[in-house]
Write a structure and sequence with these properties.
Protein Transport Mog1p, Chain A; elongated; 7 helices; alpha+beta; nine-stranded antiparallel beta sheet; 22% helix; single chain; 352 residues; disordered C terminus
Length: 352
């Protein structure tokens, strides 16, 4: 799929990697609690390994550093969002302050949300992680400054974990090199653990949304590879479209759900951000709608998106159509037609 700069700015949990916010570059982002250190056995001819992982809620990313018994290291960034172009290579620069380590690598998107860099036997990297104060991560148009809090204890734990690793003694052939495509099983680990991290979760959905979007948008080609997570992706009129269905936590108002989405979006725009939200509409059965549009304008890009919010039962739907700013008029028309379709399916309209 073609790279679109704005999609990562305007979408909370899904998109294509084009630019990330530099707003996180100035101050160190704090991790959430302690580092988790665990062993992993692959049972497929690959050596076992240990990893240390932490979540940085301000940027909604997880950092995973792994090491095997041969001292091979890898670093993974889980964006917890489908923002990468799978199998694409990205330049990555890692700097550990104060002046302990700085080196560039090529990282591979092993999934739409996870970027992995093989660091080989960079012993000074893991030592610097333990004694450094901050890890600066530089990607194309993206910078993160992650605080290295309690990492010395984690580094000691991961070494103890590695010391206990044992290869399968029944295999006569030497252990194979780590395959970056296997991602050290990081994807399976982080996706499971992230279920306990996020307060707003994707909801599994198998109740006919594909047909609804196809009929409403008059398109047939919709990516449903993440349907089980409530995510649908498409392209219409040269716009990038997607729908995300979230659980609506008890005690959260419709406005709070919208504000959460908008505030996270704003954090990821490092330049000039603008928003406009329309009135909420509630129809019979308690279904609630709202529309809006957002824009992020920088020196080298200018992007905008039209948004439709839909609350029903205990679910919260966001539909996004985006492109460059001169496509906003088209995006608004697509959004408004989609709203009319939904309203026609439901009953009488009452304006809050």
């Amino acid at each position: 799929m073609k790279v679109n700069i704005f999609i990562i700015i305007s979408i909370l949990f899904i998109g294509i990697f084009g630019t990330f916010s530099n707003a996180f570059a100035s101050s160190s982002l704090m991790p959430q609690g302690r580092w988790h250190v665990k062993p992993v056995n692959l049972f497929d001819g690959l050596p076992p390994y240990c990893y240390m992982k932490n979540y940085f809620p301000a940027a909604n990313i997880s950092l995973i550093i792994s090491k095997d018994a041969d001292a091979n290291l890898s670093l993974a960034i889980d964006f917890n969002e489908d923002i990468l172009e799978k199998d694409k290579q990205y330049s990555l620069n890692l700097t550990i302050e104060p002046n302990k380590f700085s080196k560039g690598f090529m990282a591979k998107a092993v999934s739409p949300s996870i970027l992995v860099a093989q660091l080989a036997k960079q012993s000074n990297f893991i030592a610097s992680i333990g004694r450094g104060t901050a890890l600066k991560i530089a990607l194309p148009n993206a910078n993160f400054n992650l605080a290295l809090k309690n990492t010395l204890k984690a580094v000691k734990k991961i070494q103890k974990c590695v010391d206990k690793l044992n290869y399968n003694s029944t295999k006569t052939e030497p252990p194979k090199k780590i395959d970056s495509n296997k991602n050290h099983e990081i994807s399976k680990i982080t996706k499971e653990e992230n279920k306990q991290i996020h307060t707003t979760k994707m909801v599994s959905n198998n109740d006919g949304w594909l047909g609804i979007f196809q009929n409403a948008l008059k398109i047939s080609n919709i990516d449903t590879s993440n349907k089980d997570k409530g995510v649908y992706i498409w392209k219409k009129n040269d716009l990038y479209g997607n729908a995300q269905i979230f659980k609506w936590p008890a005690g959260k108002t419709f406005s709070e759900m919208i504000n959460f989405y908008i505030s996270r979006t704003k954090q990821r725009c490092s330049d000039n951000f603008a928003k406009h939200l329309g009135r909420q509409m509630t129809i019979s059965g308690g279904k609630t709608y709202a529309i809006g549009n957002i824009a992020c304008v920088g020196q080298d890009y200018s992007n905008a998106a039209a948004l439709l919010f839909y609350g029903f039962d205990n679910k919260f739907l966001v539909v996004n159509h985006e492109g460059v700013t001169n496509q906003l008029k088209t995006a608004l028309k697509v959004r408004d037609n989609l709203l009319k379709y939904f309203l026609a399916r439901d009953a009488k309209l009452t304006v809050e």
